[in-house]
Amino acid sequence: MALLSPEVREAVTGILRAAAVALAVSWTALPIILAITYALADPNDYYNMEKVIPTRLTLEHIRSLIALGAGRAIVNSVIVALLTVAFSFALGLPAGYALARFVFPGRDTVKLLLVGMRMFPIIVIGVPLTVLYLKIGLNDTLLGVALAHTSMALPFVVLITSSIFAGIPKDLEEAGLIFGLTRAGVLLHITMPMALPGLAAAAMFAFLLSWNEVFVASVLTFNNRTLPAFVLVQVAAATELIKFAAVIIMVAPALVFVFAARKYLVTMWGITLR
Amino acid sequence: MVEVRLEGIRKRFGKTVAVDGINLTVEDGEFIVLLGPSGCGKTTTLRIIAGLEKPDEGRVLFGGRDVTRLPPRERNVSMVFQSYAVWPHMKVFDNIAFPLRIKGRPEEEIRRRVKWAAELLGIDDLLDRYPAQLSGGQRQRVAVARAIVVEPDVMLMDEPLSNLDAVLRIRMRSELKKLQRKIGVTTIYVTHDQLEAMTMGDRIAVMNKGRIMQVGSPEEVYDRPANTFVATFIGAPQMNLIKAVARSTGDGVVLDAGDFKLPAPQGLKVDDGAEVLVGVRPEHFTLQGREGIPAIRGILDFVERLGSDTILHVNTGNHIVVVKISGDYPAQVGDEVTVYPRLEKVRVFDASSGSLIG
Q1: ipTM score of the complex?
Q2: Which homologous superfamily is B4-233 in?
Q3: This prediction's pTM
């Protein structure tokens, strides 16, 4: 290397860096691109050994997926995910605020327990939950699935929102109290507007958690399948092309979320709010 | 504008006593400074006056009205925070207008009053900006404008200048003081900077360990510090405190420091042989001797040349006496020097309690 001129060395590093970036990008992007391509591929092209990239495209697989009941499953998934967001925020937001703002006995224990809840394998909870749901008549209902998802999302929502609130200087709230606001007024006029971008990211996180969850949804429902449960049960036996189509439907919301929220994802982990 | 009175205020945080029985009356329109080292309870006292903390004991009275249990919004106070606490999600105009909006004032009045406050602080061309687009000094002016726009009964300031650079800090001192005089609002100002306290306060309350050590005008706390804490906290370099023994002689009491002797101030009542601390400020020495003034001789230990002044550390054998001489002084470390204290400025403190006794 010592023999190379600075210009050559610079060129070599440039090429190496570009290669590393290309590798990283293809690692994540290639499977998605392949899935999308094959989901729209004409079966003749797909099964043609001489064709790697299909040229004739069709919506046939997505249509047959919908014929199997995917439309209903998507609607179910959206309802369950929205309920999960609503429940986990109704409970998690005040908890997160309290953890961020007030010192009380056992505060650190509460935080630790919240993280600890994630150590429970969901399979261990799934079966007793089904039994319980059968007893109280919540089995095979969207509300039941949403409640189960809320219990999974809640620790995250509490921890994320508490880090968002902790990032808002206390002085700004106290200035609100001094200049005429009640505690509730401070929350409404000062804290919430500043926390909003971060809270939106946390909401999308809870939404996706519910959207992707397959085990509990499969165990707790029979007729009212959410999308992942539907895909697991219905598509397992279907053709590869229909599996690819299912991939698209599953991944699309996540992609939209990442593109819309990547700016806010930084604040979600409580870095800074300025 | 009101008189503020604190009666027996006490506040504990867990096991630490932050404020330990404070009584203080701030007169209507007065500018009072709470001065003390960090952790002395001055900020807690201010927050109790603001209503951000509730005292464990004692009462807070605004013009005779007991406000101890009232939330901040019902006290008609305003506050300038050390961090400025200007809301980042609102433009400058909305920040200043906010207290008026909450009070439901008509839009026309809001515009007029915001304009008045902004012009007073020279920020009327910044009203359309967000705080993130302002410098620290500008943000601070926004915080002050927001504090005066409501015409508060009491204005509270918590170390408002400590985040500014040195030049701006000195300029803002006189500006804030002039502003306070112009609008005549009762002001309570917290700082740990004794120069700020001396230049701005009508009176200074010097605090230590949750108690008020002395309340008085800047001249009083400088000239007759109530104890050794106040004596050394006010003034830079610090007042010399020289260990000495009081001895009764035929012509009155003499303070014997071993290396030198000083006549005690008139009317000092002290037992023969009592241990005392003799307090002399560095600026209260001269180089010219006069009849009857005892000389203090020693070897120059260290010299600080500040341009306008020269600070000499004189080793007299058992003591280091710090002396401030105006202008340059052509002496070197190791030289022998003789200085003369201005006897009318000499103060005497009890060695064990630290209280001023003469």
Answers
A1: 0.86
A2: P-loop containing nucleotide triphosphate hydrolases (3.40.50.300)
A3: 0.81
